[in-house]
Model the fold of this input.
Amino acid sequence: MPDFIYAPPQQPRLDILYQDDAIIVLNKPSGLLSVPGRLPEHNDSIASRVQAQFPTATIVHRLDMCTSGVILMALTKAAQSHISRQFQQRSTSKYYYARLEGIPTATNGSIDLPLRCDWPNRPRQMIDFIEGKPALTHWQVIAQQQACNDNNQQASATVLLKPVTGRSHQLRLHMLALGTPILGDELYASAQGIAGAEHLQLHAAMLEIEHPLTSEKMTFKATPPFSID
Done:
């Protein structure tokens, strides 16, 4: 494989969905890291961009670099602790949209397959029933498409994904386990599936939390950068 070249999108620098004294919620584009990487050339991230304007901001959860959508940062230590606890206790609610390479044989279901890092092949993850950590995803087909490519019909489906756990690459591995990897997934899709989209077709569309100051339930949404019809 060619060496990875990090070229994150530059505009908009920050797509802010909501902000108050305790939290800031953003729509992260595909191709931008959630936090800085180890190398200096990988410093650009949603976290570093936010911290340039809001120095006290801290990350409380992450999205894969290739995943777009709703991401939240805390602006105070108290808010960070409060919201991190919600994620740990799984009291938050969230869903994603994804476009798949192929159409699942069922219209909905749950995938309960444990995951761990595939260390020799990082950053790939793998299913491991002995050493893997529990991972559960509920899924539902919401649309099917037939795309014509060079006179060949390539079937695809749009799914609504509701992860219960938050393992690295969980949704990507679980869709692969269905036999329908996510379009544009350079780690897990076929060559045709990678070529079928300009970037990973996975979007964090909704996040619901309890506000750390008011205890009010707050819901944040971001429109996917791809069609879900």
Q: What stands out?
A: The chain has one domain: 16-221.
